[in-house]
Amino acid sequence: MPIEHALSELETVLGDRLSRSKSDLDAHGGSETYFPLAAPQAVAYPETTEEVSRIVKTCNAHGVPVIAYGAGTSLEGHTSAIRGGVTLDMSRMNKVLRVSQGDMDAAVQPGLTREALNEDLRATGLFFSVDPGANASLGGMAATRASGTTTVRYGTMRDNVLGLEVVMADGRIIRTGSRARKSSAGYDLTALFLGSEGTLGIITELTVKLHGQPEAVSAGICAFETMGDAVEAVTAVIQMGLPMARIEFLDAEAVRAVNQYSGTDVAETPHLFVEFHGTDTGVAEDAARFAEIVEDFGAKGIEVATKPEERSALWTMRHHAYWACLGLKKGVQGVVTDVCVPISSLAQAVEETAADIEASIIPGPILGHVGDGNFHAILLVDPRQPDELEAAKALAARMNERALALGGTVTGEHGIGMGKLAYMEAQHGDAWDVMSDIKRTLDPNGILNPGKMVKPGNR
Amino acid sequence: MPIEHALSELETVLGDRLSRSKSDLDAHGGSETYFPLAAPQAVAYPETTEEVSRIVKTCNAHGVPVIAYGAGTSLEGHTSAIRGGVTLDMSRMNKVLRVSQGDMDAAVQPGLTREALNEDLRATGLFFSVDPGANASLGGMAATRASGTTTVRYGTMRDNVLGLEVVMADGRIIRTGSRARKSSAGYDLTALFLGSEGTLGIITELTVKLHGQPEAVSAGICAFETMGDAVEAVTAVIQMGLPMARIEFLDAEAVRAVNQYSGTDVAETPHLFVEFHGTDTGVAEDAARFAEIVEDFGAKGIEVATKPEERSALWTMRHHAYWACLGLKKGVQGVVTDVCVPISSLAQAVEETAADIEASIIPGPILGHVGDGNFHAILLVDPRQPDELEAAKALAARMNERALALGGTVTGEHGIGMGKLAYMEAQHGDAWDVMSDIKRTLDPNGILNPGKMVKPGNR
Question: A427 vs B186: CB contact, 8 Å cut-off?
Answer without folding.
Answer: yes
